[in-house]
Specification:
Blueprint lengths: L1 H45 L4 H11 L6 H11 L4 H15 L3 H25 L23 H20 L3 H24 L5 H30 L10
Helix pairs in contact: 1-8, 3-7, 4-5, 5-6, 5-8, 6-7, 6-8, 7-8
Length: 240
């Protein structure tokens, strides 16, 4: 018994540094991503667009694939209010009803927080939208161009849903299918916003980076609260 207790104690001591190491890695990655996002925002404030923005936009807008435009507009439609408010609200309510109350709260945190970030950053950068004299613009929008709000929001929101699927769904096939389906809007929305001339590619890049930062913070906070209020292992999938 004494030897078993000693082994358990040694194992516990060995796990603690590993946990701290992961925490430091997480903080360093978030810090570096924040520095990169800040630098990109500063550059976006300095110039209306980068040379590669025009070339990439024209290349994307030259794509001629049957059904592509319909798909891109459908994905972009999801991110516009008022429908986005109803969709996110329904998902929050659904998670709450099935008993995933912490998950519902953190989903709301991801959605509201990412929207708040966009409202805060856009007027600070105040970058003009793409000009119809340079690229095709489907609709003139009054707000600033950096970062892309659609990309920022969908990265944080669908990213958190993917995380929930990974940690809660035990069936391997179902988990992979759901994660892949949820990843589609995140991957497509960036192309959609450039295709419609709503944003430059650099605006989209900013949306992905800032949305990824908020997603990482949301997941980190969720894991902390989950461990504190539920104990280790609660709501985590079992290997299948």
């Amino acid at each position: 018994m004494a030897s078993e207790a000693l082994v358990a104690e040694v194992g516990h001591e060995q796990r603690q540094p590993d946990t701290r190491l992961r925490s430091w890695r997480f903080l360093v990655i978030v810090f570096l991503a924040t520095v990169a996002a800040s630098a990109l925002a500063f550059l976006a404030k300095s110039v209306p667009y980068f040379p590669f923005d025009v070339e990439m936009t024209r290349s994307i807008q030259s794509l001629s694939i049957p059904g592509l435009e319909t798909l891109l507009r459908a994905v972009a439609w999801v991110g516009f209010p008022p429908q986005s408010n109803f969709i996110w609200g329904a998902l929050i309510l659904g998670l709450f009803v099935i008993g995933l109350r912490l998950e519902a709260a953190m989903f709301a945190f991801a959605a509201v927080g990412s929207a708040a970030l966009w409202f805060a950053i856009v007027p600070l950068v105040d970058r003009p939208r793409p000009s119809p004299e340079l690229v095709n613009v489907a609709m003139q929008l009054p707000t600033g161009s950096f970062p892309s709000g659609h990309v920022l929001n969908l990265t944080a929101i669908f990213g958190f849903l993917i995380f929930l699927v990974v940690v809660t769904v035990s069936n391997v096939i179902l988990r992979r299918v759901l994660a892949a389906l949820l990843a589609v809007p995140v991957l497509i929305i960036g192309i959609a916003r450039v295709y419609e001339g709503a944003h430059w590619p650099s605006d989209v890049l900013g949306g992905y980076v800032i949305g990824g930062i908020w997603l990482a913070l949301t997941i980190g906070l969720y894991q902390t609260l989950n461990k504190r209020f539920r104990g280790p292992g609660r709501q985590q999938r079992t290997p299948a």
